[in-house]
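[step 3/7] fold_predict: job queued, chain A
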Amino acid sequence: MWRRAIPSNKDDNTNGQIPYHALKSSIFKNYKSEVPQEFHKPAVLISAFGFFAVLLAWMLMEFFMQGQLQHLFPAVIPYVHIPSSLILSMLIFVIVLVIASWILKKVYRKPAFELIKGKANNVFNYCFGGFGIWFVCMLALTLVLKNIHKTNWHFTYSFPHWWLAAAFWTLTLPAQTLFEELMFRFWLPKLFTFSTPQGAHVISALVFAVLHSGNSEFTVYPWYWIAMYYFGFGLFFSMLKLKSGSVLLPWSVHFAHNLSVVLWVQYPHASLQTPALWTSQIDESLSVSLISSAILMGLAYIPFKKLYFK
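[step 4/7] structure written:
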């Protein structure tokens, strides 16, 4: 015999139905489990708090990168030939990434890795496949530019400085790029609830460009062209996130891009001053940078669409 879920009481006039106060209590109790966490007011507040905390850390990092505190910190690792301010800024990224992961876990009640993974069905393919495709594209572009600027490029490989620098960037750039992708492709778009997902990512790409305005490229070229350059990359990373359903793909591409920038060639006004295989006497022309970046995005779109887009 089946037992009644709500025992009847002849004096409560419910006729065997669930009382209103019990129904209200049940709805309130199950509210958090039925409604997505990102729509909870506390979650939005915590996200906003986390965003501004991370933004403050970002500003501090930019302060370090501009060399404002360079005179306070002697060379931490002189043998690597990397400015101490740059080393400290990368360590800040590692710390901030840990804090951001903790906040994400508290807000969404899921491990941060599950949020980063998203709809990726094969983490290995998303990480190493996306990295490999863009890394090869960047290497091919570097070789093309080398043939164009034969007189301006000099082979400056130095052992073991280049290998130590490569090890440092390989260990720290994953944290720096993952933090940026979490912030601009996951966290920030969820705060723009007044817009569509596509519109939220466009706004996030704009913020991405603004927050990169502290880079030294802005002192060489007109700010609006450099802003367009970073805005374009922000849109490209957002497109990868929306099409693949995972932060892993834009993160792996972002990591491959930054690692290629520091390993292959060093320009006079590069933001990341580090030992590289080649050193250029002049900065790359803005038109070449914009056109080559657009070509790389178009070429990489083909394998990305075939392998990762849902």
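[step 5/7] annotate
The first helix runs from residue 20 to 34.
The chain has ten helices and three strands.
exit 0
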